[in-house]
Amino acid sequence: MTKSDLIDAIAADADVSKASAQRMLDAVAQHITQALAKGETVAWAGFGTFAVSERAARTGRNPRTGEEIQIEASKGAKFSAGKALKDALNGR
Questions:
Q1: Pick the CATH number of 40-91 from 1.10.1160.10, 3.40.1170.60, 1.10.150.130, 4.10.520.10
Q2: Which CDD domains match (predicted)?
Q3: Which runs of E-coded beta strand occur in the chain?
Q4: Taking 90 as the threshold, does the pLDDT of residue 36 lie above it?
Q5: What is the spatial distance between Cα 27 and Cα 9, in angstroms, rounded to a whole number?
Q6: Running DSSP on this structure, what letter comes out for residue 7?
């Protein structure tokens, strides 16, 4: 499912225009992004939890030359599925 497909589905289910559905979806994504950027966790009951994951600095290897390189520490987004989502995926 693409973003466009999701917008179409939201518009149909919520009985709103596609433009309104796109604004709603963009707002949700923006607020989740802002919360994660502040280091907060976003818990969506029944769906899942978005959190920030810390990756430590490490030594890697350039695949072309075999030379060792230092990879900087970084942050990434992590998603943990909630019980209702897991149950839906497993046909329960």
A1: 4.10.520.10
A2: HU
A3: 42-44, 48-55, 58-61, 68-71, 74-81
A4: yes
A5: 16
A6: H
| Count, residues in the chain | 92
Strands 58-61 and 48-55: unpaired
The predicted structure's pLDDT at residue 80: 96
Residues 70, 79: Cα–Cα separation, whole Å:
27
SS3 87: helix
Structure tokens at 51: 């959190």
pLDDT of residue 45: 93
CB 69 within 8 A of CB 61: yes
pTM for this one?
0.79
Closest listed residue to residue 33, CA positions, set 21, 42, 23: 42
Q: For residues 53 and 55, give the distance between their C-alpha atoms in angstroms, rounded to a whole number.
A: 7
